[in-house]
Design brief:
about 80 residues, mainly alpha, about 70% helix
Amino acid sequence: MGRVNMTLDAVSSERLKRYAKRLGRPQATVAGDLVREGLELRAAEERRRKLAADYAAGRADARELLAVMEPGQLEILGDEDA
């Protein structure tokens, strides 16, 4: 397991502290979870952008890939401007 030391601005630090307290978990654990979730969201966004680019370029299997995505996935992907 790797270790990362971070410096957070005062607002983020306080938000992390309150959130961890509300969950009853250590701040470091909560911060690790948040980083992991953020990385997963970024990877999903990259996949969505690649799929959209492939679809726009006429990739043969793009329509099939879109068809197998669950409607909930498409709803989440449409919230990028929120």
